[in-house]
Amino acid sequence: MAEAAEPGSGFNSKSVALRAQKKILGKMASKSVAKAFVDDTTGELLDQLYKLAKLETGNKKEAEKLVKDLVKIVVKISILFRNDQLNREEIQIAEKFRRNFRSSAMTFISFYEVDFSFDKKFLTKNLEDCRSLIHQIIDRHLTAKSHGRVDHVFNYYANGDMLERVFQANRDGPYGTILKNIVDNLNKLMEEGSKVFDITLKFEEVFISDKVFDITSELEGAFNKIIKPRKNNT
């Protein structure tokens, strides 16, 4: 069960994800995307990332914006997958991202579990590689504003100085508690085979020859309005 928002904060990552789903799915006539994009464990992880940003920056609004941008990225990429919008090259890039992100998560866990093992350059390099791959995945599909959201998230969570401060903080203090919760949720996600790490990419289900399956014209029109609105308001 997802962790409740902090008293008085009025913010809950799972709630943000659900609102984003409703807003987008309400405009799309397709049952294939009518499933949750963010499960309970992922929601708990997002809540911990929010708490980390709020504590580290001292800025509640910025912490909320970071997690909201992260949720929007996850939801929109999920829509691209579920509507077979990625071509063969993009699916290969997505698979590479999955491997890199899983490796980054395992590295993060290892740095927490093994004292004095934290390597700022190694972890930030892995995360920056993930950033680059996401940009490549969404390049044909999403607006500059969505690319900006990706950069906003990675500029903070892949910042080596921030990561170093968190890992070197007293484990008995607030940073230590949040870090432990992040690691616990990462472990749980990998054990569960969560969508975050194990999006199944089956070429035979996505392609006929080299052509991506077309969705219906009605759904395609709705999809394009959401993904690339004329007024750039994604």
TrEMBL record:
Gene3D superfamilies: Tumor necrosis factor alpha-induced protein 8-like. One of its GO terms (biological process) is regulation of apoptotic process. InterPro entries: TNFAIP8-like, TNFAIP8_sf. GO terms for cellular component: cytoplasm. Signal peptide: none annotated. This is Tumor necrosis factor alpha-induced protein 8. It comes from Stylophora pistillata (Smooth cauliflower coral). The lineage of its organism: Eukaryota, Metazoa, Cnidaria, Anthozoa, Hexacorallia. The gene is TNFAIP8.
